[in-house]
Amino acid sequence: MNVLINKFLLFGWFLEIICISRTKHKLSNNHFLYTPICPMYGLGGLFISLAISNISNYLLVFFVAGLIAITVEYSVSYF
């Protein structure tokens, strides 16, 4: 489980750095941590993995994963 969380932490951080750097046209790290992790992506990925592990309908997987991602993003924005 820890390896899965670490993969989500690093992959989310990496993708966000790429997206921010492309829009600002310079390398930028806008996180509150000074390490290459983003806890929001780790928790979101873990919640999504646990929630969709038993769902076989691809459309339902898409909507459940989207709902969890929206919920995590929205709840983190208040803190």
Give the topology, please.
Elements (H helix, E strand, L loop, with lengths): L1 H23 L14 H14 L5 H19 L3
Describe the protein's architecture and organization.
The structure is a single chain. This protein is mainly α and 79 residues long. It has 3 helices and no strands. Helix 1 packs across helix 2 and helix 2 packs antiparallel against helix 3. The model has no long low-confidence stretch (mean pLDDT 84).
Helix-strand string: HHH
What value does the average pLDDT take?
Answer: 84
Rg (CA only) = 14 Å
* Separation, N- and C-terminal Cα atoms: 25 Å
How many DSSP H or I helices? Answer: 3
Give me the count of strands: 0
Largest pleated sheet: none
Give the helix level as a range of percent. Answer: over 70%
Query: Globular, elongated, flat, extended or rod-shaped: what is the shape?
Result: globular
Low-pLDDT runs: none
Structural class: mainly alpha
The percentage of residues in β strands lies in under 5%
